[in-house]
Structures are given as structure tokens and as C-alpha cells.
Amino acid sequence: MAKRTDNKMIRVSSINKSFGDNQVLKDIDLTVYEGEVVVVIGPSGSGKSTLLRCINFLETSESGQIYFEEKLIQNKENDINQMRQSVGMVFQHFYLFPHMTVLENIIEGPTQVKKMKKQDAIPFAEELLDKVGLLDKKDFYPAMLSGGQKQRVAIARALAMKPKLMLFDEPTSALDPELVGDVLNVMNKLAREGMTMLVVTHEMGFAKEVADRIIFMDEGRIVEEGTPNSFFLNPENPRVKDFLSCII
Amino acid sequence: MGGYDFTIIFEKFPIFLPAAFETLKIAAAAIIVGVIVGLFIAFGRLSKIKIIYYLSTLYVTIIRGTPIILQLFIVYFGLANIVKLDPYPSAIIAFGAHNAAYIAEIFRGAILSIDKGQMEAARSIGMTNFLAMRRVVLPQAFKRAVPNLGNQFIIAVKDSSLASTIAVRELLLKSQQLGSSNFRFMEYLLIAGIYYLIITGILSIFVNKLEKRLAVNER
Q1: A168 and A8 Cβ atoms separated by less than 8 Å
Q2: Average pLDDT for consecutive 10-residue bins of chain B (219 residues)?
Q3: A236, CA 20 to 30 Å: which among A9, A41, B63, B66?
């Protein structure tokens, strides 16, 4: 596994976020280092997904700062679009573009955002499709794919922008159980190649095996964080103990 | 029945062709104006900028809340004190403005029906709001709007008959004029009716074809 460096990839500083009266994130601080795989777990409603969405500004936090590669990202179109080109996002429900083929989905970012020529974008797109095991599906439309295949295409679409950081928002939660493995394998491969990843998931096996660090969130706060070993074997926080006893 | 001579229908059918062409021209122009203006009004209705939202909402409210013939008369007779428009441009302006309001609502509904995750996915690969709209949301919204647009286009064809009231020589006026010349109203009205059916029929076929063609990416 590629080792993490001391370069800070993303730094979240005292982020607060509310939906109406419901404060979802309470003073969250989090740093993810280059090459690190951080897995966020916690009960539903604990703010995991919101944290991820705040990081690439799909939600706007009320206070706090986000630094990408130590540069403060202002809540301005330019800053945000610039950062998003380097931050891939994978959604629970894939959100492939249904009117485009698999290949078109993947080259959309490079050609439209980075203004690459189509013929220059296609070889890399095919390479990525090969990597996620779906090169033979390149001319299919998303509707013809299974959930697991869609999610692997979505990962390839994000990777096509050559991101420095990948955010995964419950990437396997909407999949049939037998399709989860293929997606986790791809993520596993990515992690081994040294991709910096922040993953919200309920897949404890993945967390144990792949994570460098596990973060447990509850009611909008990070209540425990540590290596997989310390987290699963010696959890300190009673909420974590409860949670782990429920799922294992 | 004795008063009717339906052989006239076959005999006089061809002489309605120029009038049918007029109907087609007005309807087509109204639809084109309606789609273009309607798209902008739809964006206005979806705008976060209050003043734009209110103005476009006011527009839709006024157009939908008043009769189309009143709108036509306002353009042709009402505006005459300021600008004297010929019947033909009057009809296109009035019908175009009328269709714009309805088409705006069709587009707005279609855009809102697209999962907001589509916009988020597009934004997450660094697209601007405009680019995401153009490349991701609008193509899907347009597809979803096609059945309703087709419906509105058919209505536009039929509504163009109101232009007869301001002396545009379209199908209905033609049948009235010929009818009053020899009191064979029924026969001439039926001819106009057949032309309308042909135009709307072809339009339906075209819209169905388009729907099917756009459905290639569905299972």
C-alpha cells in the first residue's frame, strides 16, 4: 500500500452546518493527508454524508474553512470549480448521465471542463474502463448496466479528471449484495495505487482492510478516530461500542 | 341532408392549399417564438434572482389568465395607436407570446423533474452551472418535455384559426369566405377541418417518432 505523506490534501476547520433547526455538523475538524485512506462510519443521520458534501461545496457550511492542498477555498464559483476538477466524487446513486453512453460519460469532464480533444480523451477513458473491468460496455447506455457496473463507471468518470482526492458517499449502499464486491475491489485497487480517499461507508470489511484511519461520527461530531486495529479492537467511546456490537 | 353537396369537398379541396400554407406559417412561427421565449421564461421562473422570478411569473400569470383572442386583439387593435402592425406579424407576436407562457411551464416542469443528483454529478466534475445545464440537465429535460410540447404544438396549430378574426387568410377565413359566397358553409368548413386534421396528424407522427428516437438510451 502506498504510504501517506505529510502533505495535507484536505483540511476541514471547524465546519458547522444546519438544516433548519437541525445542526448536522458541529465544529468538525478533519485533515486528510496525501495518499491516505480515511473511512468515515457512524449511524445514519450522524452527518457523514453532509461532511463529504460540504467538502466539495455541494452543501455550503455556515461557518468554518476548507483548505485544499493548504489553499483556502472561498465560497466562490471560480475557487469551487477549480477545486472540483481535482476532487472526484462518487455518489450513492451513481448519477451517471443517462443520455450518454458509458464512454461519453467518462470523457464528458475531460472534453467539456478541461477542453481536451475527444480523440485525446478516449484512450485514457478506455484505460480507466479496462481498470474497472467494463471496457466491453463502453458503448452501452447506463440503463443497460447493473448497479454495480454503473457505480464502477461513475468511479471511472470521476477518475477521468485525474483527481488528487476521491470522495465516496456510501458507494455501495444502493447495490444488491452480490454486486458490492466488484465496486469494493475497484476501490481497493485505487487505494493500493496511492489515491487519497475519503470514504463514507457501512462496509466494515473494507474499513478494516483498506483504511489507514477510521473516523466515527455521531450527532454531528467526530467522537472517535484511530487505526482500524485500535478502532475495532479497543473502541473507547461507548457510542462506538454500541454501534460495533450492533453491526458485527 | 338534401342541402349538402359533399362532392364539393373533393372538388374544392386543392384551392385551400394556399390557406393551409398560411395556417402552417403562423403556427410554425408561433411555435418557434414560443419555444425560444418560453425557454428564457422557464429559466426566469427557476431563477434565484427575485425580480426575474417575479417578472416571469407575472408574465405566465397574465398570459394564462386571459383569452388568447384578447391577446391577439390587444396586439392588433390595441397597439394600433402606438404601432400599426399588419395582421400577419400581429398574429405571430400574439400567438408566439401566448405559446411562450405555456411552453415555459412545460420546460420548467421538465427541468424540475430531473433528479438534482444529475446537476450535482455534473458540478462535481468541475462544470459551471451553465455548462451542467446545457450538457446534462437540458438534454434530459427536453426529452421529458417532448410529449407535452407536442401537445402544445397541436394546440398552437388549432389556435392559429383565431387569426381569421384579424383577416389573416388562413384556413378558417377561407372556408368562411367561400361559404358566404354560396352558403355551402358545411362543405367548406369540413375542408378546413380535414386540413387541420392532416396538419395535426403529421405533427403527432413527427412527435411520436422523436419520442422513440430520444428513447434509445432507455432499456
Answers
A1: no
A2: 80 93 96 97 96 97 97 96 93 98 97 96 95 96 94 96 94 93 92 96 95 81
A3: A9
Distances (CA, A) of B23 to A123, B174, B195, B208: 52, 11, 10, 22
A113 touches chain B (CB under 8 A): yes
**Please, how many CA atoms are within 13 Å of residue A80, restricted to the half-sphere of its CB?**
19
pTM score, whole prediction: 0.88
Under a CB-based contact definition with an 8 Å cutoff, are residues A144 and B219 in contact? yes
Q: What is the mean pLDDT of chain A?
A: 93
Q: Is A97 in contact with A142 (CB distance < 8 Å)? A: yes
Q: What is the Cα–Cα distance from A29 to A15, expressed in whole angstroms?
A: 7
Grid coordinates representing A217 are: 461520527
Of B192, B116, B135, nearest in space to B160 by CA: B192
Average pLDDT over residues A90-118: 96
Amino acid at A146: S
- Backbone conformation region of residue A68, classed left if phi is above 0, alpha if psi is from -120 to 50, else beta: beta
Contact check, Cβ <8 Å, A81/B219: no
The SS3 call for residue A41 is strand
Describe chain B by its helix, strand, coil percentages, rounded to 5: 85, 0, 15
And the C-alpha cell for B94? Answer: 400574439
A96 sits in the region (left: phi over 0; alpha: psi -120 to 50; else beta) called beta
Hey, CA dihedral for A24, A30, A34, A36, is it positive or negative?
negative
Specify burial of residue B180 (Cβ count, 10 A radius: 0-12, 13-18, 19+). Answer: exposed
Rounded Cα distance between A220 and A50, Å, is: 9
Output the pLDDT for position B1: 45
Quote the cell numbers at residue A37: 485512506
* Residues of chain B positioned with their CB less than 8 A from the CB of A97: 118, 121-122, 136, 140
Answer whether A157 sits within 8 Å of B135, measured CB to CB. Answer: no
Interval A134-149: pLDDT, tens: 999 999 999 999 999 9
Take residue A93 and report the three cell numbers written for it: 446513486
Chain A contact set for B144 (CB, 8 A):
none
CB A9, CB A33: distance < 8 Å: yes
- Tell me, what's the pLDDT at A244? 86
Confidence check on the interface: ipTM exceeds 0.90, yes or no: yes
Q: Are B120 and A103 in contact (CB under 8 A)?
A: no
